[in-house]
Amino acid sequence: MRTHKPQQTIFSLPIRQLYPHPDNANRMPKAKFDTLVRHLEATGQYEPLVVRSHPTKKHRWQLLNGHHRLRALRQLQYTVADCVVFAADDKQSRLYLLNLNGLVGRDNVYKKARLIEQLCGCFNRRDLAKRLGESKTAVEKLEALSKNQPLPKTPAKPPLLPMSFFMTESQYATITRAMAKANGENTGGPRSQKRLTALCQMAEAYLNE
């Protein structure tokens, strides 16, 4: 039975010698990646990357964990990165890719709210929201939850009701031309929203005749 955790040596490796693993399946939404970049830019602190010796390139390293951190470091023009080197063959590497990159936990909302409340004493709420990649409203709601205060009210949006129907090709062409004419100069927004606006305009014009 293992009674202690073996100490791992952290190496500073040149970023130009680090290569992403081609089988990495982990992806990060842009908003979270932007938060990671802001964190690195503000603190310079990050969890070391996990690498192995590159299987085909001499004196090069292949990433097993930390692909997004590496991309963020490159974006911030770092030249070296803190790394832990694992001895891993191809089979072990793929297991690491799945296990290490897939270990994403979920926040306990009450503990998160408590952390938010404590940080609100150090940052203004807008700045804190930016650092966390959250909206200011979300930060205020969590702060209120921690203080057991009523949550800030968010204006309720009217429910969206579906409407679907089928038509012939000629009917589709007629309605499409009519909606294009009703839209006129309205070129902004998603296509579905523009069509909905045009349809409402045609309905209102018919009712007002």
What does this structure look like?
There is one protein chain. With 209 residues, the chain is an alpha/beta fold. 47% of the residues lie in helices and 11% in strands. The protein has helices at 30-43, 67-75, 90-102, 109-120, 125-132, 136-146, 169-183, 191-207, and strands at residues 10-14, 18-19, 49-53, 61-65, 80-85. Strands 1-5-3-4-2 form a five-stranded mixed beta sheet. Strand 3 (49-53) and strand 4 (61-65) form a beta hairpin. The protein is extended.
Quickly list its features.
8 helices, 47% helix, alpha/beta, five-stranded mixed sheet, 3 domains, Conserved hypothetical protein from pyrococcus furiosus pfu- 392566-001, ParB domain, 209 residues, 5 strands
Distance between the amino and carboxyl termini: 85 Å
Structural class computed from helices and strand pairing: alpha/beta
| Oligomeric state of this protein | single chain
- Output the strand order for the largest sheet: 1-5-3-4-2
Run of helices and strands: EEHEEHEHHHHHH
Q: What name is given to the CATH topology of the largest domain?
A: Conserved hypothetical protein from pyrococcus furiosus pfu- 392566-001, ParB domain
Tell me, briefly, the overall form. extended
Bin the helical content: 40-55%
The overall pLDDT average reads: 82
Radius of gyration (CA) equals: 26 Å
Number of strands: 5
Strand content: 5-15%
Can you tell me the CATH superfamily of the largest domain? Conserved hypothetical protein from pyrococcus furiosus pfu- 392566-001, ParB domain
Please tell me the total number of domains: 3
Count of discrete alpha- or pi-helical segments spanning 4 or more residues: 8
Q: Describe the main β-sheet briefly.
A: 5 strands, mixed
CATH class of the largest domain: Alpha Beta
The CATH architecture assignment of the largest domain turns out to be Alpha-Beta Complex
- Ranges where pLDDT stays below 50 over 5 or more residues in a row are none
